[in-house]
Amino acid sequence: xxxxxxxxxxxxxxxxxxxxxxxxxxxxxxxxxxxxxxxxxxxxxxxxxxxxxxxxxxxxxxxxxxxxxxxxxxxx
Amino acid sequence: xxxxxxxxxxxxxxxxxxxxxxxxxxxxxxxxxxxxxxxxxxxxxxxxxxxxxxxxxxxxxxxxxxxxxxxxxxxxxxxxxxxxxxxxxxxxxxxxxxxxxxxxxxxxxxxxxxxxxxxxxxxxxxxxxxxxxxxxxxxxxxxxxxxxxxxxxxxxxxxxxxxxxxxxxxxxxxxxxxxxxxxxxxxxxxxxxxxxxxxxxxxxxxxxxxxxxxxxxxxxxxxxxxxxxxxxxxxxxxxxxxxxxxxxxxxxxxxxxxxxxxxxxxxxxxxxxxxxxxxxxxxxxxxxxxxxxxxxxxxxxxxxxxxxxxxxxxxxxxxxxxxxxxxxxxxxxxxxxxxxxxxxxxxxxxxxxxxxxxxxxxxxxxxxxxxxxxxxxxxxxxxxxxxxxxxxxxxxxxxxxxxxxxxxxxxxxxxxxxxxxxxxxxxxxxxxxxxxxxxxxxxxxxxxxxxxxxxxxxxxxxxxxxxxxxx
Lengths: 76, 471
Prior knowledge:
- The complex is a heterodimer.
- By secondary structure, chain A is of the alpha+beta class.
- Chain A has helices at 25-33, 67-70, and strands spanning 15-21, 41-47, 54-58, 61-65, 73-75.
- Chain A has a single domain, classed as SH3 type barrels, CATH 2.30.30.90.
- In chain A, a hairpin with a 2-residue loop joins strand 3 (54-58) and strand 4 (61-65).
- Chain B is built from 17 helices and nine strands.
- In chain B, helix 8 (219-235) runs antiparallel to helix 11 and helix 14 packs antiparallel against helix 15.
- The longest helix of chain B is centred in the C-terminal third of the chain and has 44 residues, at 339-382.
- The two termini of chain B are 33 Å apart.
- The interface between A and B is large, with 33 and 43 residues.
């Protein structure tokens, strides 16, 4: 996949691996707590009616992320 | 309300990860004064119950202690520690339900309460409750707690749910790899908790020889840790693992050093020798290109990858596609076309049921209570009691009370079980998921939809309260 692709750009049902987290501070730690680190496999699972947030399958758990956060998680 | 205990198949839990609870919203007070434990006798054993949110920690707590602590699926329900008592064989246990957290590193109010309890309250054992369905993520917290304390017993809950989904967990293997006792339970069934208490009992009385797993970090980090740890070892021999404190000191965790000073009366930063060693360790890390931010990332990486490798050896997914039927339901209840209408219909139905359903019992109750009121008034007349006394007691006190009870009790008795049902089915997080965007526009988050809902019901009840006085 291309270089600047984020979790937010994933299509429904598509799977990718995390390349880097661009968030900082507590949100970064929150994401790391749910197991989102370099190399973690993520699948886009559901989209809410308004298109945001989007739910992802991360290490067996379904996690919903807002676009402002998911767009800062780069994948390949 | 026994609905909690009913066998409802919850679909996979969705979380909306938004930074919600901070000091601002909970207040500092919640964190203070949480270490007080009421021991009945000197031999009582203090057991802390830790775990991620939504792993059935409160079910374990309630079924062990016979209490009925209601906790919900939103953060901040347990910011303080709940206590209960239970006994096994000849020993009394004081169970302390500490707040559910995913980690002990992110510094929310709950995490600080949980960490301080684990570090400073010296519990005899810490039961870490895990969800068998997503064990890997739960292990992150298990490993963090094992780093702090050696008195850990892991309780893998929801074994029945995991089995249903074709997930096989090698409990003995897990126990061997983690180096602590591990028990598999289904907390909804009280009997299965016997095994947990037996293990805890044995752990306290027989074999305290556990050798917990050590999370391995990269070589440079290990070197830095041991520099600080060697200095700490002579000075500080407490229940808290010095290796873990060393990691936190390098990480410059000011909240922890504050807590250590507060609870142990030992200000680490005042200790020049330790400070020197911290600087030395930082310098070593710096030379190797590990800046403070990267250090924390590497620590998390070490934890997550250890959890990953342990799970790879002990968890087997017999049915890779185990989530698919849940996902289909999820697609329907959150889709663009059907999501919102289904939600409105369901919530409208709950309201309708509450409001119309409550009319009948309300009518019955008020008829009954007012009939009694009439008889009471007759009694006063019969006893020739003064009019003013009858007025105050029967017309005033009793009638108001009768009104309030007959009008308020039925809607609450209908609404709250229904609400619990929705909560247990896992639908409420989907409501949050559907509504988040709309709520974001007014600077709130979807989770608050639930609170608003409760407030609405309370407002209605207040209306009712005014009616009898207005009459």
